[in-house]
Amino acid sequence: MHCRHQALAVLSFLTVTAGCSVGTVTGEIDGRTVPGFSEASFGGLEDDSDAFVLAGFAMPGDACVDGGEVLQIQADQREALTDGNVDEFNDLVADQADFINAAIPVGEWNMSLVFAGLDIKDVREETYDLEKQEDDDVNISLSLCFHKREAEVATVDGAATLESGLDCFTASEGDLSFILNTDDTELQVKGEKIRMDFDDGDTAGDVDVDFTMTGCSAIVDGLEAVNKSLINAG
């Protein structure tokens, strides 16, 4: 669940509604088959210059609520660090471990997507080569994580460190296609032979992905919190 966000100074909300969502991953990653997802949700923010960031999640349970919580946890931890509140940060890391164990039980998978660009038109109906995304002035991160063992918290010199128990794999090669409908309520993401890498860059497998994500206000709220925490952190 790694995300990169750029602070947006002036925000407007993308429209969100409930609807049907689905996610499929065909192929193996590190010798494991990824099961289908019954729920996939997204939210987005854009500023007056049309720069935008979208975040999407597929989870074993409620992708909308849990995806929003992922972002809120990130924001709260950054705010605590900015304020120099170590005790609060440590409590938040413990909360994060509890959240992972509840939302992504051991043996389950989750998907996270971040797409940032300079113009919302970049995601209306476009295909991107993941190896050349910088040439297109976009930043796309797609990760699939397997919960291998219970998340735990370690403490070193009084500071809490999360041991998530997640094996995460990041898309590094292949073409991803995006279609955001005109009222910003549904995002389709598809790709064939997408290379998924271990943290060290070695190949973990090639998969086909096909997600239809519906708009989610909780993820929008989470993005707003992340954006605020980035601005406050300077």
Could you please describe the fold and organization of this structure?
- Helices cover 24% and strands 42% of the residues.
- Helix 1 packs antiparallel against helix 2 and helix 1 runs parallel beside helix 3 (217-233).
- The chain is of the alpha+beta class and 234 residues long.
- The two termini are 23 Å apart.
- It has helices spanning 63-83, 86-103, 217-233, and strands at 12-13, 22-26, 28-29, 32-33, 40-46, 52-58, 109-117, 125-129, 138-147, 152-156, 159-163, 166-180, 186-197, 203-215.
- The strands form three sheets. Strands 5-6-7-9-12-13-14 form a seven-stranded mixed β-barrel. It has a two-stranded antiparallel ribbon with strand order 3-4. It has a two-stranded antiparallel ribbon with strand order 10-11.
- It has one domain (12-233).
Q: Helical residue percent?
A: 10-25%
What letter string, H or E per element, gives the SSE order? Answer: EEEEEEHHEEEEEEEEH
Helix segment count?
3
Largest sheet: 7 strands, mixed, barrel
Strand count: 14
Tally of individual domains: 1
Distance N terminus to C terminus? 23 Å
